[in-house]
């Protein structure tokens, strides 16, 4: 029994993680997650889209400016 105890301590973490993952998957699998239409989420998604477009435009301007300064040299 004394030689088995260290192995049990070593295997306790992976086994417990496997049990937790199995229980989490089992819990989520039983429920049908219906998408909620929250207006706040839609507003935030539109703001993220606007910010991404502004960032893309700014990067294009900076790229154009850096290539024009390189052409002058």
- Outline the biggest β-sheet: none
Helix content: over 70%
Report the order of strands and helices.
HH
- Protein structure class: mainly alpha
Q: Give start-end ranges of low-pLDDT stretches.
A: none
Distance between the termini: 79 Å
Give the number of domains. 1
Q: Using DSSP, what is the number of strands?
A: 0
What this model shows, in words?
The chain has about 70 residues and is an all-alpha fold. It has one domain (about 5-30, about 40-70). About 80% of the residues lie in helices and about 0% in strands. It contains two helices and no strands. The protein has helices spanning about 5-30, 40-70. The protein is elongated. The model has no long low-confidence stretch (mean pLDDT about 85).
Reconstruct the topology from this structure.
Elements: H1 5-30, H2 39-72
Concise summary:
The protein has 73 residues and is mostly helical.
Keywords:
82% helix, 73 residues, mainly alpha
């Amino acid at each position: 029994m004394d030689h088995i105890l260290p192995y049990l301590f070593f295997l306790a973490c992976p086994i417990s993680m496997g049990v937790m993952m199995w229980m989490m998957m089992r819990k989520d699998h039983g429920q049908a997650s219906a998408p909620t239409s929250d207006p706040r989420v839609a507003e935030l998604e539109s703001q993220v889209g606007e910010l991404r477009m502004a960032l893309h435009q700014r990067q294009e301007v900076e790229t154009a400016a850096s290539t024009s300064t390189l052409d002058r040299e």
